[in-house]
């Protein structure tokens, strides 16, 4: 099933932050595409039986000048048997701004279908083969439902057969000294990550080569801060919170640090193989896994490696089509899984010496442990990929 995420388009000032966070977010199309799309919607309104000239009640305030017409949504919802929509949806005053928003939404979906090589072709995004997911805050859902229904009325069957809503709770800031926007929030977290890195790694963190590392750690910290809470719940940001650091065991930086430890381990082993210190890792079928006797080794296997597919299924699978319009995406499950995995892996790695002395009688145990930790590394990479985070090769 093809899925298109259609969020409200960001303000110009937020787009730089989205680029920093490595989010591919829709933007207003350039050139004549948007005005042409708005004109097409106006022509569709002229043919629409549910559209009518605005009837102003006596004594009511004058209507805005950019009102095009009114469209009766409630009757359409009842006729189509659509469930889950706000019962207060009734008559919509269609303005130039709403038509522009709808045109932007249409163009965003069309561009996703064309530009994403992994997506279904646009010609197959018809009927039930394509889902459009509106990502909205709880305050914006009513207005987005209006656009959803207007889209259904004016462009039936295009991309509208399955529209769902991923509704996000509010984001609050504790004791803000002044209003803070997305850009200030990102820069604050980046500065905190830089300061924490300098405290932990000293002058190394001041080198230009660390710029990309600190950027990645900042993105990870923000994503975990946002996605560790169920999307329906309120997020409270403590801008002075020291857990946004390299030390806090609940943060995205801690997860990235442990992922980098695994990369360093295997890089060290590979260099030792090239020097002839250790032999290459044999195939898994030739290894003696009875050498794994540490409790931490079996904990990694039974608590993380074996359950990981089920965690992914529960966290990422969209529910089957239903009469309701709301869906859930349990990103907090992946975040909590990664944090707990990092804690247990870190505990094991601090206790157990993986690369021992290069004596042949110790190789069986070393090979078994490397095979186990290679699987742990793969789980780290796969889970981080669901959050669109690249693994760090070193810190």
UniProtKB/TrEMBL annotation:
InterPro entries: DALR_anticod-bd (IPR008909), DALRD3 (IPR037380), tRNAsynth_Ia_anticodon-bd (IPR009080). It holds the Pfam family DALR_1. GO terms for biological process: arginyl-tRNA aminoacylation; tRNA C3-cytosine methylation. One of its GO terms (molecular function) is arginine-tRNA ligase activity. Residues 255-395 form the DALR anticodon binding domain. It comes from the Eukaryota. This is DALD3 protein. It comes from Smutsornis africanus (Double-banded courser). The lineage of its organism: Eukaryota, Metazoa, Chordata, Craniata, Vertebrata.
């Amino acid at each position: 099933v093809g899925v298109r995420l259609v969020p409200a388009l960001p303000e110009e000032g937020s787009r730089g932050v989205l680029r920093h966070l490595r989010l591919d977010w829709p933007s207003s199309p350039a050139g004549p595409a948007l005005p042409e799309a708005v004109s097409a919607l106006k022509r569709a309104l002229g043919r629409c039986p549910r559209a009518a000239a605005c009837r102003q009640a006596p004594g009511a305030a004058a209507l805005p000048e950019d009102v095009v017409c009114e469209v009766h949504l409630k009757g359409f919802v009842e006729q189509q048997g659509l469930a889950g929509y706000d019962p207060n949806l009734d008559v919509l005053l269609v303005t130039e701004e709403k038509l522009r928003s709808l045109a932007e939404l249409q163009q965003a979906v069309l561009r996703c279908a064309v530009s994403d090589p992994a997506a279904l072709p646009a010609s197959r995004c018809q009927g039930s083969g394509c889902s459009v997911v509106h990502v909205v805050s709880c305050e914006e859902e009513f207005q987005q439902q209006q656009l959803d229904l207007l889209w259904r009325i004016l462009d039936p069957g295009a991309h509208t057969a399955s529209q769902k809503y991923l509704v996000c709770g509010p984001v609050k800031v504790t004791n803000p000294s002044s209003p803070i926007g997305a850009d200030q929030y990102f820069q604050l977290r980046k500065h905190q990550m830089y300061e924490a890195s300098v405290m932990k790694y000293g002058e190394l963190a001041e080198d230009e080569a660390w710029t990309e590392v600190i950027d990645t750690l900042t993105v990870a910290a923000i994503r975990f801060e946002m996605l560790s809470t169920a999307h329906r719940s309120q997020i409270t940001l403590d801008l002075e919170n020291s857990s946004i650091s390299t030390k806090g065991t609940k943060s995205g930086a801690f997860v990235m640090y442990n992922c980098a430890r695994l990369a360093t381990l295997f890089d060290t082993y590979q260099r030792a193989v090239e020097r002839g210190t250790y032999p290459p890792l044999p195939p898994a079928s030739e290894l003696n896994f009875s050498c794994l006797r540490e409790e931490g080794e079996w904990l990694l296997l039974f608590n993380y490696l074996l359950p990981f597919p089920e965690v992914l299924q529960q966290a990422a699978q969209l529910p089957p089509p239903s009469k309701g319009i709301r869906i859930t995406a349990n990103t907090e499950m992946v975040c909590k899984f990664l944090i707990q995995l990092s804690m247990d892996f870190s505990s094991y790695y601090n206790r157990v010496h993986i690369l021992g002395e290069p004596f042949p009688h110790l190789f069986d145990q070393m090979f078994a442990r490397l095979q186990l930790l290679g699987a742990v590394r793969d789980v780290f990479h796969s889970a981080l990929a669901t959050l669109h985070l690249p693994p760090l090769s070193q810190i």
